[in-house]
């Protein structure tokens, strides 16, 4: 067989095989309207179950969540999960160095991570307690006993809010979903320029502020970045600026808008009784000097240090209840009476203006929860509200140029917040 004949036969065979393949191959008819699922779509990822909680792999454990009940102990919760009494005793001992299991508060959340054996017996591996929105405590039970206190990641989101006063500042801010902390922050910034109790219908405000977020939920207010308040057709400006000694608030001329002392040492409250050297006490039928200013507020309301200073007393007496006394300098001293409990600062420690030193209560001689705020000038108790108090120092000359640049940027952002005064509405937006 010559080469030409062999090549011809090979070509014919290839043609026959190809024809048979395409005839026998199944035909697929596609409906152009048919939708095919995309197993790698974004939806699939969005709906995926999280792999970790509190840093613990969920695939290894079952979980049970709950809230601490009144008088419930660590043992009450974990004995049903087959934690031995010896381990509970040991955990009670070692937890004191981090967060004692005896300090659990009713209604606070907890999560138990556990395994189930072949006899359906639950065995706890981790217990996680959440004392607040910013942190959690892990009590490790499996392998070896240990306690870890962890902080959550806090995201800072800048927001703006603008509104017109129809009733009160508190009403205007809360109507848009603002918090009591934001009301208090505004009262602190403008407290020595504007009396919140004297606001008029038609006054308006604009704010740029930081919202502190944890897992998509607001957990408090950060800094006020800038604010404008129009009160009785007078404009008041406040710009936050850090000159190296911490953030303070200044007006358009670089002058401090605040005094060396807070006007309201209690979160936004009302004055229920003023300084009165000859006050008549109806319940006792006699006159007795009242040498302080009473701020009415609910039990547990935070009490702030009115200014920078050192705690020189933190104690209890029958008349004063739980009280704290702060020496600010050689001239001024302040006192805070009838607390339900103290803050974290101890006797002898330095505090800064605005630090939480305790909580409103009615310990001592009181008829209801309030703060009795005492103010000494050169050792003599005086009327805090009538004192001509020193202002915070103005910005140094070398800081003014940088401040003016920051102020212009803040002014532009404040001007960009839309005015909606015509319909007396309030708007809030995320930057």
Structure in words:
Strands 13, 16, 17, 18, 19, 20, 21, 22, 23 and 24 form a ten-stranded antiparallel sheet that branches. A six-stranded antiparallel sheet has the order 12-11-10-9-8-25, sandwiched between helices. Strands 3-4-5-6-7 form a five-stranded antiparallel sheet, with no helix packed on it. It has helices at residues 3-24, 42-46, 74-78, 85-94, 169-175, 180-190, 397-416, and strands at 52-53, 56-57, 62-67, 109-116, 122-129, 135-140, 146-151, 155-164, 204-214, 217-231, 234-242, 247-250, 270-273, 280-281, 286-287, 292-296, 302-304, 309-317, 321-327, 332-342, 350-351, 356-360, 370-377, 380-381, 427-430. The protein is globular. The protein is built from seven helices and 25 strands. With 431 residues, the chain is α+β, with helices and mostly antiparallel strands.
Secondary-structure map:
Blueprint: H1 3-24, H2 42-46, E1 52-53, E2 56-57, E3 62-67, H3 74-78, H4 85-94, E4 109-116, E5 122-129, E6 135-140, E7 146-151, E8 155-164, H5 169-175, H6 180-190, E9 204-214, E10 217-231, E11 234-242, E12 247-250, E13 270-273, E14 280-281, E15 286-287, E16 292-296, E17 302-304, E18 309-317, E19 321-327, E20 332-342, E21 350-351, E22 356-360, E23 370-377, E24 380-381, H7 397-416, E25 427-430
Antiparallel strand pairs: 1-2, 3-4, 4-5, 5-6, 6-7, 8-9, 8-25, 9-10, 10-11, 11-12, 13-16, 14-15, 16-23, 17-22, 18-19, 18-21, 19-20, 20-22, 20-23, 23-24
Summarize the structure.
The chain is of the alpha+beta class. The protein is built from 7 helices and 25 strands.
